[in-house]
Structure formats: structure tokens, C-alpha cells
Write a structure and sequence with these properties.
alpha/beta; six-stranded parallel β-sheet; about 30% helix; elongated
Length: about 220
């Protein structure tokens, strides 16, 4: 695929290298030509100097053949404007914008522009390590209806089948991270100590799911 990135900072340059190493073609845009010094010497992608929401600049970067557009400059307004231009003017389906203001990010998410709220995400990651409870949303669909979340659970669930957990919580276990590897659960998959649980459910159900999983499983009556 061809992917266009706006912003050649640490995030943009890292993404460019990862995507190129994965076999994709990449074009990266930045208004400061000195920013391209972050790219390794062997980088084969296009370096385009300019503003990421300028149509001519986007066309030079190959936006018309792009499968995805990523806006990770240091400016919220620039990121969201360029993401909207990529989607609405050039018809790029897969767009994502980095937003520092989490309140804005939630608004744009509801408008169908996937966002990553940098400050909030970093804070959430730290809190998950300091206070490992509740759910951390990892992805929401553009309408905000469906959420994929990493969910903390009571240790009493260890040894329980994921299918039993699904029935109790009313949620689908998307996958389990086990010793750094993703495991797709089967009917007989059992939750082990150290497993990191990821569920997918309606966003409005997450509070209820957290409540169920934070408590010990109810004993079956005979």
C-alpha cells in the first residue's frame, strides 16, 4: 500500500520506517525541510516539503493513490484539517489524526475521524500500570458504538474458561495477551495467571462489564 504521513517528528519518522520495513511505499510531509533529517539515510520514500492540508502538496505526496493517511504533526488544527481533506476531498478511507486535546479527540471521533489523543493516551498507559483496574479503550469504531478494550479482572477468574467469562460479562473476548503473544480464544481456552484480557462490546456496556469482571465469578447453584 501507499501511505502518506504528515509530520516528520519522532512519531512520523518512526512510522515511516516501520511501514517501509513492512513493504509499503511511504510519502512524508513536513513544512520544515530540516525535519527530514530524522529519516535514516536509506529511506526510499518521498520527502515533500509543505503544509499537509494543501491540495498540491498532498497530490505531490501521492494522496490520490494512497490507501491510508496519517496526520501526526505537532498541531491539532493542522492534523484534523488535513485528515478531513484526505478523506473528504481525496476519498481516503483510512485516516487517523493525532490530537493533544482529548476533548477535541472525542468530538472528532464521533464525526468519523479516528484520533489518538496523545496526552490522554500516555496518562492512561501510566495509570494502567499504577492502578490496574477498569477498562482501557484501545479502539472505537467511527460511530463510537463498539469498543475494543483491555479489561482488568478479579484474580478469582483465573482458571475459568473464556467462554464462561463471556457468558457472565455479556461480552466477546477478542483475544488474550499471554506472555507477549496474542491468543485467539477457543471454547475451552482457560484464563491463566498473567493473561491480559481484551474484550469487544458495545461502549455503553463497558461499565457493567467492568463491574462483573472486577468481582469474583458467581458460583453456580446446583
Amino acid at each position: 500500500m501507499h501511505i502518506v504521513i504528515m509530520g516528520c517528528g519522532r512519531v512520523g519518522s518512526t512510522l515511516a520506517h516501520i511501514l517501509e520495513d513492512s513493504g509499503h511505499s511511504v510519502a512524508i510531509i513536513d513544512r520544515d525541510p530540516q525535519a527530514f533529517r530524522r529519516l535514516r539515510a536509506g529511506f526510499r520514500g518521498r520527502r515533500v516539503t509543505g503544509i499537509g492540508f494543501d491540495r498540491d502538496v498532498l497530490e505531490e505526496a501521492g494522496i490520490e493513490s494512497a490507501a491510508a493517511y496519517v496526520a501526526v504533526s505537532s498541531g491539532d488544527n493542522s492534523n484534523i484539517i488535513s485528515a478531513r481533506v484526505a478523506r473528504e476531498t481525496f476519498g481516503v478511507d483510512n485516516v487517523v489524526a493525532r490530537i493533544y486535546d482529548s476533548r477535541r479527540a472525542e468530538v472528532y471521533q464521533r464525526l468519523g475521524i479516528p484520533t489518538v489523543a496523545t496526552v490522554r493516551w500516555t496518562a492512561d498507559q501510566i495509570l494502567r500500570r499504577v492502578l490496574p483496574e477498569g477498562a482501557e479503550p484501545l479502539w472505537r469504531d467511527p460511530t463510537g458504538v463498539v469498543t475494543l478494550a483491555e479489561v482488568a479482572y478479579n484474580s478469582a477468574w483465573i482458571g475459568t474458561r473464556t467462554s464462561t467469562l463471556e457468558d457472565a460479562a455479556g461480552a466477546r473476548v477478542a483475544f488474550v495477551n499471554r506472555m507477549g503473544e496474542a491468543v485467539l480464544p477457543k471454547r475451552d481456552t482457560v484464563l491463566q495467571e498473567g493473561d491480559i484480557l481484551h474484550v469487544i462490546a458495545a461502549d455503553t456496556d463497558m461499565d457493567r462489564i467492568n463491574k462483573v469482571l472486577s468481582a469474583a465469578p458467581e458460583e453456580e447453584s446446583h
